[in-house]
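To close the chapter, one final illustration. This time we ask the reader to focus less on the individual chains and more on the assembly as a whole: which components sit near each other, and how the overall shape emerges from the parts.
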Amino acid sequence: AQKVTQAQTEISVVEKEDVTLDCVYETRDTTYYLFWYKQPPSGELVFLIRRNSFDEQNEISGRYSWNFQKSTSSFNFTITASQVVDSAVYFCALSEANSGYALNFGKGTSLLVTP
Amino acid sequence: DAGITQSPRYKITETGRQVTLMCHQTWSHSYMFWYRQDLGHGLRLIYYSAAADITDKGEVPDGYVVSRSKTENFPLTLESATRSQTSVYFCASSEGTVPYGYTFGSGTRLTVV
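The assembled structure is written out below.
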């Protein structure tokens, strides 16, 4: 069963629009970690954020913000005032103790930002 | 240079051949992982290792073998390559039991013809 669901396969926005990427996860562990990674066209995986299950405080980093809600098992990612350089595939991932803390990835959301 | 290095970056091999993908990290991280990335599937875990001589299967281990005789190396071997193993392979490492972050290699693009 898919533990991390990214329902949006592709999103296309015009530059300066705000965009939210959805992530829903499933776990029975009380301690777990959630991540977002960015994969630009060049192919490398770039770490964006890590959040543990005990910290529901939302986080903002520049134009990026993350909303973690345990009640809905969601960890959504918002890009404010999107830019062309934000075009990439974004992956949400879950890390649990019972799988050796391996990252369990969603299938990714491909974001295209056009001028 | 410090970091995590995968080699080769690109590899073309024939069906039935054995091929080994290398992964080397310089941090002495305990955990290492192998993933494959395929269109429509995201990244899927093949094998992981919690320490030297400790390995475990992930979601898609069939057709692959790993070893970890030294902490810094985690090679992935395709014993008899098949076309379905054409993929981009990523190696990653993590510091410890509390995953502060995972660092990924640049990937190996493997084509099986």
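The CA atoms of residues 22 and 76 of chain A lie 5 Å apart. DSSP finds no helices and twelve strands in chain A. With these observations in hand, you are ready for the problems at the end of the chapter.
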